[in-house]
Amino acid sequence: MTGDTDDIIALRAALAAAEARAEVAEARAASAEAQVAHLKHLIARMRQDRFGASSERGRRLLAQLELELEELETTLAEDAPENAADPAVRTTAPRSNRGRQPLRADLPRERVVIPAPTQCPCCGSDRLSKLGESVTETLEVIPRQFKVIQTVREKFTCRDCESITQPPAPFHPIARGRAGPWLLSTILCDKFLQHLPLNRQSDAFAREGIDL
């Protein structure tokens, strides 16, 4: 009888601990749901406020709130099946161990081969045969480069009538401007897609030695 009594006491203690854990989980879920509702309310108000949505500070704050909302919703989605199951019989689902995805195959590759040894480091023999190779890929970026395109218009004079002829001047998107089409498209994309003001772009060009 003593053994049965001990088992009953142990089961009651385990049940009480499970109920306590369930109450804590429910409280956390309720708090997270309240935070989600509050964040959704703030995001909706900021989207309705034209000034807040159009200002740079408002965009950063809105992006931060949306990120917090996404993290909370992900946490709730992950905790939902765990709270629904009995902690005593709950099993942990196996996680898929995926490595990093390889770099895109269409990116240009620059092959740098480290010089191989000419002698065996163990015995000193020079009779080495290639067994294979290990390739480590590192992603790099090439800094942008500027160039000046000189469009030459040659002048000719007629030896018979002494008139002067010359091809017409090339077309420029901005009259009497020096910025080419590709440079202008870069500036416009940075302004309207990356939300970089023109003064910041001018400072960035100045750091690269370009005075616009």
UniProtKB/TrEMBL annotation:
**Domain Transposase IS66 central per the UniProt entry, residue ranges:** 177-212
N-terminal signal peptide: none
- Start and end of every Transposase TnpC homeodomain domain? 38-112
Ranges for the region named Disordered are: 76-105
- Residue spans of biased composition, Low complexity class: 76-88
Instruction: Name the Pfam families for this protein.
Output: DDE_Tnp_IS66 (PF03050), LZ_Tnp_IS66 (PF13007), zf-IS66 (PF13005)
Q: Which UniProt keywords apply?
A: Coiled coil
Stretches of the chain forming a coiled coil according to its record? 8-75
Q: Which residues form the Transposase IS66 zinc-finger binding domain?
A: 117-162
Q: Which InterPro entries match?
A: Transposase-related, Transposase_IS66_central, Transposase_TnpC_homeodom, Znf_dom_IS66
| PANTHER family, per the entry | BLL1576 PROTEIN
Provide the protein name: Transposase
Starting at the broadest rank, the lineage of the source organism is: Bacteria, Pseudomonadati, Pseudomonadota, Alphaproteobacteria, Acetobacterales
